[in-house]
Amino acid sequence: MNIIIAGGGTGGHVFPALAVARGLKKTLPGAKVTFVGTVRGIEAKIIPREGYDLRFIRSEGLVGRDIIDTVRAALKVPLSIMDSFRILKDIRPELVMGVGGYSSGPVLLCAKLMGIPTLIHEQNTVPGLANKLLGKLVDTVAVTYHESIKYFPREKVFLTGNPVREEILNGDRDNGCEVFSLDRKLFTIFIFGGSRGASHINNAIAEALTYLEPLKENIQFLHQTGEKDFDVMKEIYSSKGFKGT
Fold it and tell me: How many folded domains does the chain comprise?
């Protein structure tokens, strides 16, 4: 059985998709799962490392960009459709699943036109543009939260929760402290802003450290900064004398 999982861009799309792929391999040992994404998305690094086939389409987001980038992205839509048709004809999947992100739209649209069963999964309370549009088109919609149901045709929706990778559920505190060089005796503050980090959260933490100076001997930070702000935040923690990883 051939299955395609399309979408990505961020870890919020990719990691649940990986959990689904692993679940499918357990349930259907003979299934072949292929991912479809873009060269600029986080999937380009993660999916091959996990041992899955990854195909690329030429697609970019249309929302939240300046006029030049929006026009450029719009001009790529026909190319993304061509790429999607080519991949679907090559793999001939029995099911195509979308996990959100701008690469999922063209693939799901083409799958629907080719009569291939389609499914999308929405990880967030409020769906993004791709899943909002696809929800009207696909055969089945799976959602993480009850609050998301209202955005989709009710007869298509199943409340499934968010797929979680097995290693997350089997985490070990002692091993985690060793991996991240944390002191088990200290109060630990975990900060994260998604797979790519979030600059506004990082800036807020940088300001907040001033007020936490009296506590710095008793606390430590585990901070997912994202690549962009990593060096800056590392220097801020060090210069203020805080223990941070």
Answer: 2
Q: Cα(2)–Cα(117) distance, rounded to whole angstroms?
A: 12
54 touches 43 (CB < 8 A): yes
Q: What is the pLDDT of residue 174?
A: 82
Q: What is the mean pLDDT of residues 49-77?
A: 77
Residue 85 backbone phi and psi in degrees, to 5: -60, -45
The confidence score (pLDDT) of residue 2 equals 95
What are the pLDDT digits (tens) for 101-113?
888 999 999 999 9
Residues with Cβ within 8 Å of 13's Cβ and at least 6 positions away in sequence, in order, are 7, 43, 99, 100, 101, 123
Q: Which domain holds residue 120?
A: 2-166
Rounded to whole angstroms, the Cα distance separating 79 from 142 reads 28
Q: How far apart are CA 42 and CA 12, in angstroms?
A: 10
- C-alpha 69/C-alpha 167 separation (Å) is 38
CA 220 to chain centre: 27
Are 12 and 132 part of one and the same domain? Answer: yes
Q: CATH number of the domain that 211 lies in?
A: 3.40.50.2000
Q: Which residues contact 55 (CB under 8 A, 6 or more apart)?
A: 34, 35, 36, 37, 87, 91
Residue-wise pLDDT for 174-191, tens only, equals 888 888 888 888 999 999
Phi and psi at residue 112, in whole multiples of 5°?
Answer: -65, -45
